[in-house]
Amino acid sequence: MEMDKLETGGNPGFKSGFVTMIGRPNVGKSTLLNRLTGQKIAITSNKPQTTRNRIKTVYTDEEKGQIVFVDTPGIHKAKNRLGEFMMKQVRETLGDVDLVLWLVEPKTKVLEEDKKIANALANIDQPLILVINKADTVPRGTLLPVIEAYRKIGNFAEIVPISAYKGSGCKDLLETIFKYLPYGPAFYDADTVTDQTEREIVSEIIREKSLYALQDEVPHGIAVTVEKMHPRKGRHLMDIEATIYCERESHKGIIIGKKGAMLKRIGSDARYEIEKMLEMKVDLKLWVKVRKNWRDNPAQLKNFGYTEEEDE
Fold first, then answer.
1. Helices 29-37 and 170-180: crossing angle, nearest 10°?
2. Residue 46 C-beta-side C-alpha neighbours within 13 Å
3. DSSP letter string, 22-53
4. How confident is the model at residue 145 (pLDDT cuts 50, 70, 90)?
5. How is the beta sheet containing 55-61 ordered, strand by strand?
6. How much of the chain exceeds pLDDT 70, in percent?
7. Which residues of 295-306 are buried (b: 16+ CB within 10 A; e: fewer)?
8. Is the pTM of this model over 0.85?
9. Nearest 5°: CA angle at 39, between 168 and 201?
10. Which of 9, 75, 145, 217 is 20 to 30 A from 48 (CA-CA)?
11. DSSP H or E stretch at residue 80
């Protein structure tokens, strides 16, 4: 993750560095990422394995410094080539960052998945911060047993309770992150919020709305590509054409729904989010196609953007 740094006006107290969030699926990593940056970058849902690629999101405080957040997939057991790709992304990210945030829920009984994460983080060289998300869902007095339970399995530089959904504790978390970053100039311009293109964010928004709307057996086999995206001549309007790919013909029928009702719902929900992001009206057209077993097909994985990053 080596990059040339930018000038910062000679501020000797300016800090900058890379930070990653690790945790079980659904613990709130993407929600926290969106909260800290104030932007809808990472998609959220109650389905596991929502995040598939490493997403760099940038938070800049012109006085204190710049944090480059690297969002990763939730740690899970890989069941196909896509899963293997996702877990490789996690391992590589851990070796590249300056600081690691481990997100957990306020449970006094440590789950087996969290014990595996603790083992994976046991030998890292970077400072490790335990972030107890959803702290607003339990009485404050019950957080002490949670903290003690996790202290038994991890060596933490700091422990910070927060609510990513409500925003409480997030300012304290930012202060804590800056405390552990090295001094130095910024990696990105101050107005940069992500390394993703608008097309990539649009495809992820469509996938997010599909995850919310569809039954449990469908979402893991969904990929989205944006075929066309261009402003309509003479209008403050963006024309977007996108395709939702699934692995089975039966899934295609579910995604389309009776008389197209499900696809219409996905399109309507996605268009609302995309219009907010682009700050303009959107004409969104969606299609559904089948690519059997694409999650185990290297060529299809590459086609959908799940490929290794080229070294610059």
1. 90
2. 5
3. EESTTSSHHHHHHHHHTS--S---SSTT---S
4. very high
5. 55-61, 65-71, 15-23, 99-104, 128-132, 158-161
6. 77
7. bebeebbeebeb
8. no
9. 140
10. 145
11. none
CB 115 within 8 A of CB 82: no
CA angle 75, 80, 82 (to 5 degrees): 65
The answer to whether residues 123 and 41 touch, using CB atoms and an 8 Å cutoff, is no
| The residue to which tokens 């996108």 are assigned | 242
Helix (H, G, I), strand (E, B) or coil at 214: coil
218 pLDDT tier (thresholds 50, 70, 90): low
* Identity at 277, one-letter amino acid code: M
Q: Read off the tokens for 88.
A: 């490789």
Q: Virtual CA dihedral for 38, 25, 178, 200, nearest 10 degrees?
A: -50
Q: How far apart are CA 101 and CA 178, in angstroms?
A: 13
Look at residues 274, 166, 156, 155 and name the one whose alpha carbon lies nearest to residue 224: 274
Band of pLDDT at residue 52, cut at 50, 70 and 90: very low
Terminus-to-terminus CA distance in the chain, angstroms? 10
Question: What are the backbone dihedrals phi and psi of residue 109, each rounded to the nearest 5 degrees, phi first?
Answer: -95, 115
Identify the DSSP state of 247. S
Categorize the per-residue pLDDT at 46 as very low, low, confident or very high, splitting at 50, 70 and 90.
very low
DSSP category for residue 183? B
Q: How far apart are CA 54 and CA 218, in angstroms?
A: 23
